[in-house]
Amino acid sequence: MPNTVVVPEEDLAAYLRAVIAGFWNAGFRKQILINGHAQDYVIPMAIHGFGKRFQVPAVLVYLNWWFSIRQHIRDKEHGGPFETKFVHADECETSYSLALFPELIDMKYAVDTKGEMYIKEGIVDKSGLAYGYPVRFYDHVGLTGMEVLCTPEGVVGKSTLAEGQKAKKGVEAAMDFMEGLVNEILSKFPPGKLPPADKITQRSKEEIEAVIKGPLKGGKHIYTICYPT
User: Fold this and answer.
1) How far is CA 150 from CA 85, 108, 120, 125, 156, in A?
2) Strand segments (E) across the chain
3) What's the whole-model pTM score?
4) For 52-96, what is each residue's pLDDT tens digit?
5) Domain ranges, ordered by start, for the chain
């Protein structure tokens, strides 16, 4: 699309590995990477890439917050609040936008469109993985038409049906889940405590203790293990 910058998946994963390493080196050994749009296959790859390269004690969690509230983003036929199934910039996503940042949404520009799916319903899941279909929306190429060609408006669905009230319970549920996730991690790994090194790495005890201590306290920095390329 015009006015966008395309970053290849490999470069994004490398960038994220570097960010994770930098935060770990600065003392943030428990990190939650929150996402709400695309790159669902890239961020886990970055996390696991960091784990394989550095092999240091850490808690790294990727959360696409839509996945934590699937029951709140479904259509009415499947127990949700919406008339249509969540796809992109549609009734569901625009409703959440109206609930979270209404000052940035002007509904006079809302339009209704329909994307192109070339196989029957029930195989490829929708946005938010709301229905649990076998093929996730990012696990294929060619089963749907390109949005830039089929829906150049930038909407795939009926955004005119959006209402902030429809998303209220979902927003609250997402916040509750994230708070619960943080509290659960902290209950198992309070400040100063990490997963047991002898259970998650085969690096020597001396090497792990040195990087955990850090260079300012007589230890070593994480880049003595490797550089996050």
Assistant:
1) 18, 22, 18, 19, 9
2) 30-35, 59-64
3) 0.93
4) 999 999 999 999 999 999 999 999 999 999 999 999 999 999 999
5) 9-67+175-224, 72-165
